[in-house]
Amino acid sequence: MVVFVKLPKFRWHYILYYFILCLFHEKFLLSYNGLFGIHMYKEAFNMDTFHNNNILHRVLSEIDDIPAILMLNMHALNLTLNWLCNVDNFSSVHGKLLIFAFDRTTYNTIRVSWPKIKLIFWPLPEMHLQFQIGDSRYQMLQYFRAKLCAYLASIGHDFWIIQADTYWRKNLFEIIDTHKMLGLNGNLLFDQEGDKGLLNKMIAGGYFFVKASPKSECFFNEVSRQLESYYATDNNIMGALCVTQYCGNKCTFIPYTLISNWRWYWSDKTYIPALLQFDSGSNSEQKFDNMQKLGAEFVNITEVKNHYRAKCFIHKTIKPEDVVPEWRLKAEENDIKKIQQSLTFAHHICEWLYEKFPKIGYILRVYIFPYYSYYIL
User: Fold this and answer.
1) Which residues have CB under 8 Å from 228's CB, separation 6+?
2) Which residue of 127, 156, 324, 365 shows the fewest CB atoms closer than 10 Å?
3) What is the pLDDT of residue 369?
């Protein structure tokens, strides 16, 4: 007699449940690891480290104008040296700079190549190592920046935060009138994520100006508090605080036509921004390679013992705006990375929702954007 055994029915939804569980577990580990460095080395970011640093106070007193702050380790040296040559002939840019070097190689290289630039060696745990967006060291960098911003605001110092992964076609400090852009009540001036839709009121976070006040101090204290507690991006945290006017802060924006980011390369390119960022989620070497391919290369770098030496291409630094022709910039298309693909896809969904239901914009900016970015990468 033949006996037929009835096999259990295969349930495909079990695979879906398992996939979701694995994905949740992976993102949980990323979140835990991302916050680990901040919690492990929290004492290194204490406000007293700024207050008790005599070199910081001396350097700040020596800068006659509003300081422009840059921070880096040796893995971003190529980009930074290239940028320093890019702006070498722009009036007063080097004189405004205050650079935080997280390792000796960075400190020695810049000190030898540009001895007049204000430079501070500021060692932080693990910050001499390479990092990428979303990892523990990247979160520590954001946390350090927020703490520094809060401290400078507390002692009455207006300041700029800038990045070196940028081709300056024009002098930022000559084309932007912070007083005019801030208006009567504004105290925080940010770069934009884009020029339309939700992006028009979202913060990119590479460039911003802070008018020192108790309100500004309160703003950045809250940014650092949230970075301690949540696996989030600081630019979107700042964006949410701007929407709610946290502590009475009023945020305004630098037009996207002046400072762009990676999204511009995939736009219609009806205009060319004065400053072009290469913030594509790549590491510094890839960003520098992209700038070289474009023609925005301003430096020759040679290795000398325990540091590097930078020699600017003088013929290019005379007029940086003409180094890369406009037709070349409009024709250039950077390879879009997986990170940008994920962000673009998710953002298109958000834009569609915003177009259909405009009131949802507040919810997206305040409750969704600060915390969703890392989880879709």
Assistant:
1) 35, 38, 39, 42, 143
2) 156
3) 87
Q: What is the DSSP string of 99-157?
A: EEESSHHHHHHHHHH-TTSEEEE---TTTTS---TTSHHHHHHHHHHHHHHHHHHHTT-
Nearest Cα to 160, choosing from 201, 197, 191? 191
Burial bucket for residue 117 (CB in 10 Å: 0-12, 13-18, 19+): middle
Using only C-alpha atoms, the chain has a radius of gyration, in whole angstroms, of 23
Multiple choice CATH, 38-336, 3.90.550.10, 3.40.50.720, 3.40.50.970, 2.60.120.200: 3.90.550.10
Taking the domains of the chain in order of start, what are their residue ranges? 38-336
Which tokens hold the place of 250?
Answer: 């009023």
Residues of the chain with pLDDT under 50: none
Task: State how far the Cα of 139 lies from the Cα of 228, in Å rounded to an integer.
Answer: 9
**Contact indicator for 52, 82 with CB cutoff of 8 Å:** no
Q: CA-to-CA distance for 164 and 262, rounded, in angstroms?
A: 14
Q: Residue 245 is which amino acid?
A: Q
CA nearest to 178, candidates 203, 211, 217, 154: 211
Q: In the structure, how many helices (H) and strands (E) does the chain have? A: 17, 12
pLDDT, tens only, 12-45: 666 665 555 665 556 666 676 778 889 899 999 9
What pLDDT is attached to residue 204? 94
pLDDT at res. 168: 98
Beta bridge partners of 104: none
Sign of CA dihedral 67, 73, 76, 79: positive
pTM of the model: 0.89
